[in-house]
Design brief:
alpha/beta, Rossmann fold, binds S-adenosylmethionine, 17 helices
Amino acid sequence: MRAAAHRRQLDTALLAWRQLWHPQPFREARPAWCEQWPALTAALLALSDADAAHLNDDAPAALRWLAAYLPEVDGLLPLIDIPVAENTPPSVPDERWAWEIPGRKRAQIEAFASAVQPGGAGVIDWCGGKGHLGRLLGLAWQQPVHTLEIDAALCADGEQLAGRIGLDHRFLERDALAVADWPRPGQQAVALHACGNLHRRLVEHGAGAGVARFDVAPCCYYRGVNTHYQPLSAGGQLQLSRDDTRLAVTETVTASPRLTRQRDHGIAWKLAFTAWREQVGGVAYKTFKPVPAPWLRGSFADFLANMAVREGLPAPDQRHLDAIEAAGWQRLREVLRLSIPRHAFRRALELWLVLDLADYLGERGYEPSLSTFCDRQLTPRNLLLTARRM
Ligand SMILES: C[S@@+](CC[C@H](N)C(=O)[O-])C[C@H]1O[C@@H](n2cnc3c(N)ncnc32)[C@H](O)[C@@H]1O
C-alpha cells in the first residue's frame, strides 16, 4: 500500500478508536470506555496474569482478542502488518570494524546494514555516535562516509576506530538541529535510532538539501515535542499529545523478569501514593516529579513519608500503611489489564508517526517504503523508512 493511503487509513482508524488508546489507566482508574463496554471491562479484569502479560505485549493478539467485544477493531491488523526487509548481509573482509561494539548494539547495526542498499554519492550517518554503522557501510560499500554527532568524545573515539582500519570516515562534530550545510546533495543519509526531532530534522532538511536516498530507523518520537506533535505532512486529522507520542515507544520486550518485577513494584507504590493522595487531599490525578530510585528500594513507610513531605501532604497514618500499599498493588493489577486496549494501538500510533515522515518525503519527489529490519526482540524500534529520490 502506498504511504499516503496507508497513513489515511491509519488516521481514520486511530481517530475512531481514540477513546480506547488515549486515556491512561494509571491516571484514571476507570477510563470512560469502561462504562460504554462493561462486558469488555469485566473480561479484561478477569484475565490471568499470564494472559494479561501476553496481550499487553502482542498487539496483533490483543486486537484479535478485543474483536470479540469490539467488532471491526481487527480491521487494524493489515494496517500494522509491515513486510520484513530483504536481507543482504554486508560483505566485509574481517571483524575489525566491530571492535568494542557491545553485542546487542552490534546485532542491531548488522541487521540495519543488511536491510539497506547503497544509493548515493557517499554516506552520511546522522547522529551516529562512534560511527559504528557508518564504518560498516563505508567498508562494505567502499564509499566515503561522514558521521555527524554532537558529542566530541564519541567523535574522537570513532575517528580512532576508523583510523585503525584505514577507512575514509570523517566525523562532523555538529548539532543536527542547527547544521545547515549537511547532508550534502546526492548523499545517502542513514540514521539508526536518531531520536524524535533529530530524525525529523534529517527528513525535513535532507529533502530540501537533495539527499538521494534516506534509510531511517526512528525512535523516541516524543523527543522535541512540546505539548502536541506537529505533523510534517498535510492531510491527517489526528492530533497527538506528547503523551500519545510516548505511548508509541513504551514496550519493554527487552526487559528481564527481574526488571519487570522492579517496574511493577515501582508502579504499585506510585499508584498507592496517588490513591492515598486522592483520599487525604481530595485531588483528582495530577502528575508528580519522578520518584528518586533509592526511595523505591527502602520500606513502603519511608517511601510514603518522603512523598508526603515532598508533595506537601500531611504525614500518613501509620495504622493504615498496609491497606494503602495493598490498594496500590490492587490498582496495579487493574492498570495492567485495562491498559491492554491502549497497548493494542501502540504499533498503529508508531506507524502513523513514521508514515507522516514517509508521506512528507512522498510529497517532495521521493518514493518511500516501510519495512522491518530486525525482529522486535532485538529492538522494538525496528521500523525502517527507505525513500529514494525519483
Ligand atoms: C540513540 S544514539 C544512536 C547512535 C547511533 N546511531 C547508534 O545506533 O549507535 C543517538 C545519538 O545522537 C546523538 N545526538 C543527540 N543529540 C544530538 C544533536 N543535537 N546533534 C547531533 N547528535 C546528537 C547522541 O550523542 C547519540 O550518540
